[in-house]
Every structure is written in C-alpha cells, then in structure tokens.
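Appendix B, Record 12. Input sequence as logged:
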Amino acid sequence: AALATIALVAAPMTSAEAASKYRVSAGVSDNKLDLTSHDGSNRSTHIKGRVKGGKVKGKKVYIYASNTSARDQKYRYIGSDKLSSSGRFDKKWKPKDGGNYRIKVVKKSGSGKRAGEDLTRVYVFKFVNLAYFFTGGNGVTRPDKAGSVGGSYWSTSYEIPAGSAATFATQGYSCFRINFKIGVSDRVGGSGS
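Logged structural output:
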C-alpha cells in the first residue's frame, strides 16, 4: 500500500491576525476654553467621537487628561461614557485649572479585540493667583491686606525688603502671561523705587 505524507508548517500569527484592534476617533466641541469668562460661558467642552471594530453598544470608553503646561503631567482619569449602538460617545468636561491639555480616550480590550485609543487637545485659559508661582525670597513676606500701596489693598501682595528679591518660578508652564503691579508700601513712607 502506498503511503501519503503531508507536511504541516506551523508559523506564529501576527498580532494583527491574533486579535484586531478597536479603532477610536476622538475630538472636542470646543478646544479653546476660558475659565474666567464673565458670563460663565466657554468653561466646558464635550469630548466626543466614535469607536469602530465590532459590537460595542453599552460598552464604555475611559477618558484621561494630562495638563502639559503643569509640572506634573501625569494622565488623570476624568470620566467614562457608554457607547451607543453606532459606537458614539459624548462626555461633558469642565476643567478646574488652566493649561494645555492632552485628552486620551481609551476603549479597553474585550470580545477578542485589542484596546484602542486616540488623542485630542484642549487649551484652557485661566487667571492664576500669583502665589502659585512664588518660590521664595530672603525676608519676603505676604502682607496682602495688611499693607497697602497708594492707598489700595491688593489681594495678593509680597513685601520685598531693600536689597532682597522674590523668585517666581514658571518652569514647566506655557501659553500664559504674568502681570505685575509694583509700588512702594505705604508703611515705608516717602518715595522710593
């Protein structure tokens, strides 16, 4: 009797063949916010988009934000949203701090699919108290409303002795402007510079 032999060749599947990936597309309704707007508008945005790659109705996307204008740029969880039958999501977000934010939307792995994610950006303007940037100074004090300049009381003030200096650190921050008002304390008397 004749024998037939079959040679089998085993080859590892690529990761794309092993499990396809969720495709996430994300954007925002408004990418320029102003937390100091007088009428309260323009302080929030909607992070929205779509997930493709399988049946996702009722599944969730998870949303994270990183303030790239701050010293600590770690991603922080800001919420989740359930996906519609067409894979759409829409999450309202109201940031508390100003800065240049990188928003990451993640659809975790499941149902034989690998995780997918997408990034978008939001720029947030906000006036920040000067105390946030103050790092020190020899003999520098914070008299605030205890002292006045030209008869006016300032909500955040620093009294800098003659021959000293105050340091305000802005490393790690971008897209901002600092305004200083400088004057001689009324407690000094006379005039000076």
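Residues 74 and 171 are 16 Å apart (CA to CA).
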